[in-house]
TrEMBL record:
Organism in which the protein naturally occurs: Candidatus Giovannonibacteria bacterium GW2011_GWB1_47_6b
Gene: pheT
Alphabetized PANTHER family for the sequence: PHENYLALANINE--TRNA LIGASE BETA SUBUNIT, PHENYLALANYL-TRNA SYNTHETASE BETA CHAIN AND LEUCINE-RICH REPEAT-CONTAINING PROTEIN 47
Domain B5 positions: 281-356
Protein known as: Phenylalanine--tRNA ligase beta subunit
InterPro entries: aa-tRNA-synth_II/BPL/LPL, B3/B4_tRNA-bd, DNA-bd_dom_put_sf, Fdx_antiC-bd, Fdx_antiC-bd_sf, Phe-tRNA-ligase_IIc_bsu, Phe-tRNA-ligase_IIc_bsu_bact, Phe-tRNA_synthase-like_B3/B4
């Protein structure tokens, strides 16, 4: 933010030269830079606009640093026009905490004095006429934005209200804006006079012909001004200050200073003030203990020295050492706790003078974080299968959700203040973005294989659940990708060490999946995720695995198992089965029929052809038999095979080829 060194010097006559001021101010307050001429560029923290976005605020800080005094303004002129005041009403009380208006009469509007023009130009503002220049100058000096209306062009009572949807306003800079119901306006009986806290309107603009004016000073809800400014893409010095939040105390302060300067420069006649809403900030009083401060700062500062620093900054101190009460200046909206007071003292004392003591912390043995290591292993496995890792936003739009179901079904968590409609909700599933990634990239490639590890967020009966999830998606133009993705998931689980898991019929209300072409992944009676085809998409397959559940099961699987002493025996079996019969059902039935010696089953071949019987497909399985206490005989294995074939024939009407 730009500041005039000349004006700062007028407010604090004992300031050193410009270079000396910048050096000390950088050490004890904010970052300051000489940009040439009379101008300084000072970086104001976001929480300090109320007190430090003005020359008066910077002057108070500088006076505290250099142990000098601030030159305060003169007295407010007396009211000359009795019973002449504007009618004001606040209709949007939440959006406007305070609004004041004062009536003036002027014989002629001329130019502002040269000293004022110099300061305005130093701060990046263009001089216009005496009245407008005083409004801008007072904003620079006190931090309170003001605006002047031509009183003859104001129709009836001034009201602070929310705009009507579709209402339009022409602004003093020549712009035209369409407003909606969330925008705050200053209006009369004819319509909007100004976009509150952002820009004045053209209709009641002060001109050389103006003889009666109304000056406004107000305090608006900062989020509302910020949203309006962003939505309209209209950024001003006033909107920057209001968006960060200002103290109520500045309303009266700015009005009094504007009255004084208008009287001095324009020889104006002063009317009465009308104020609506709150006029004062509530008092804030904090306890201060010097022993607690010294423990925090690592110093041995005397109570009197610490209190002197606070008094220099405008804090009022009462009580005795150890039982101090500190009253916070009304414009210091950033001060709310003891540590804030400590920071103010340390700023003036100097961070460079704090003792440099190394921290003392207990040393603990290095240990591995299993969750991190397992995620890295998952990444390594997925990359080994040729999948590329992607990183998507943690936010989704309503449009993405309602393509399959309403946000309530998803349990989507909405943001209070989204930066745009595309980021209205936290993502309830990784697959929403993964499906879009596949669609976007499949235009250029025959096959796309991607995965993502990230967080999902779901609102379950008012309780927010945050989960670590692996999402995977494969898109192929020429063939069905479900078999490839299912194979990837199978191999992933096995390489992670999870041996006891099942792929069952989905039987799960996932509205974005084709129920007939999707499977549920289970282990130890827990649902680990799913793999399947999205609705209306034969070129894409998706999967999600809940990593928190998976990692717990993987850790439980980590137990010692001795190498088998006796060799295993393998048998292959080819079956003709109905085309709609799921492989997982066949695997489950095999395990059920021969639980004693059947150690493993794998699908090794899949075949469909018109030469086969209609409605049939061929599947070949490799069965591994093993006993812990002996080598199985061919006769024993044959008996187990007969049990399996009998069970399959009875359950599914299969034919052994």
């Amino acid at each position: 933010m730009k500041f005039s060194y000349t004006l700062l010097k007028q407010l604090v006559p004992r300031l050193p030269d410009k270079a000396g001021f910048i050096e000390k101010f950088n050490l004890h307050a904010f970052e300051a830079e000489d940009t040439g001429g009379d101008t300084l560029e000072i970086s104001i923290p976001a929480n300090r606009y109320s007190d430090a976005s003005s020359h008066w605020g910077i002057a108070k800080i500088a006076a505290a640093i250099f142990n000098a005094s601030v030159k305060y303004f003169g007295k407010e002129p007396k009211t000359e026009l009795k019973n002449k005041k504007p009618a004001i009403k606040i209709l949007a009380k939440k959006e406007c905490r305070s609004y004041s208006g004062r009536y003036f009469e002027i014989s002629r509007i001329g130019d502002s004095p040269e000293w004022m023009k110099v300061i305005l130009r130093s701060c990046g503002l263009r001089p216009i006429n005496a009245v407008v220049d005083v409004m801008n100058y007072v904003m620079l000096e006190t931090g309170q934005p003001l605006h002047a209306f031509d009183a003859n062009l104001v129709a009836g009572e001034i009201g602070v209200r929310l705009a009507k949807r579709g209402e339009e306003i022409a602004t003093i800079d020549g712009g035209n804006y369409r407003l909606d119901g969330s925008d705050l306006v200053i209006a009369d009986e004819k319509g909007p006079l100004a976009i509150a806290g952002v820009k004045g309107g053209k209709r009641a603009e002060v001109s050389p012909a103006t003889r009666k004016i109304i000056v406004e000073a107000a305090n608006f809800d900062s989020p509302g001004i910020y949203k309006t400014s962003r939505r309209l893409n209209l950024f001003t010095d006033a909107s920057a200050r209001f968006s960060h939040g200002l103290s109520l105390a500045l309303v009266d302060f700015g009005m009094r200073r504007a009255t004084e300067l208008l009287k001095e420069i324009c020889k104006i006649k002063v009317g009465e003030v009308t104020s609506a809403g709150s006029v004062k900030e509530p008092k804030r009083i904090l306890k201060f203990d010097i022993n607690k401060f010294n423990l925090l700062a690592g110093l041995e500062l005397k109570d009197g020295v610490a209190m002197d620093y606070l008094k220099r900054l405008g804090f009022k101190v009462t009580g005795s050492a150890g039982r101090r009460l500190v009253e916070v200046p009304p414009e210091r909206t950033d001060i709310s706790i003891f540590e804030d007071l400590a920071e103010e003292i340390i700023n003036l004392y100097g961070y460079e003078q704090l003792p440099a003591n190394p921290p003392r912390v207990p040393l603990v043995p290095v240990h591995s974080e299993e969750g991190v290591l397992l995620k890295e292993k998952v990444r390594e496995i997925m990359r080994g299968f040729g999948l590329s890792e992607v990183y998507n936003y943690s936010f989704v739009s309503r449009k993405q959700l309602v393509e399959y179901a309403e946000p309530k079904w998803w349990g989507a968590v909405s943001l209070l203040n989204p930066i745009s409609a595309d980021f209205q909700y936290l993502r309830p599933s990784l697959t929403l973005h993964l499906m879009r990634n596949i669609k976007d990239n499949l235009r250029f490639y025959d096959g796309v294989r991607i995965f993502e590890i990230g967080k999902t967020f779901v609102d379950k009966d008012g309780k927010f659940e945050e989960k670590s999830v692996l999402g995977a998606a494969i898109g192929l133009k020429q063939e069905n990708p479900i078999f490839e993705l299912k194979g990837v998931i199978n191999e992933l689980l096995q390489q992670l060490g999870l041996t006891e898991y099942f792929l069952r019929d989905l039987d799960w209300d996932l509205r974005f999946l084709d129920q007939d072409n999707s499977l549920r992944i289970e282990s130890d009676h827990q649902v680990l995720g799913y793999v399947g085809l999205p609705k209306n998409s034969g070129t894409m397959a998706i999967a999600e695995i809940f990593l928190d559940k998976l990692f717990r099961l993987v850790e439980e699987e980590k137990e010692y198992e001795p190498v088998p002493k006796y060799p295993s025996i393998m048998r292959d079996i080819s079956l003709l089965v109905p085309t709609d019969l799921r492989v997982n059902r066949i695997l489950e039935e095999m395990q059920r029929a021969a639980p004693k010696f059947l150690d493993d089953v794998d699908l090794v071949d899949f075949y469909e052809d018109t030469n086969l019987k209609e409605g049939r497909k061929s599947l070949t399985f490799r069965l591994v038999f093993q006993a812990d206490d002996r080598t199985l005989t061919d006769e024993e294995v044959g008996q187990e095979m007969e049990k399996i074939i009998a069970a399959l024939t009875e359950q599914f009407e299969v034919e052994v080829r």
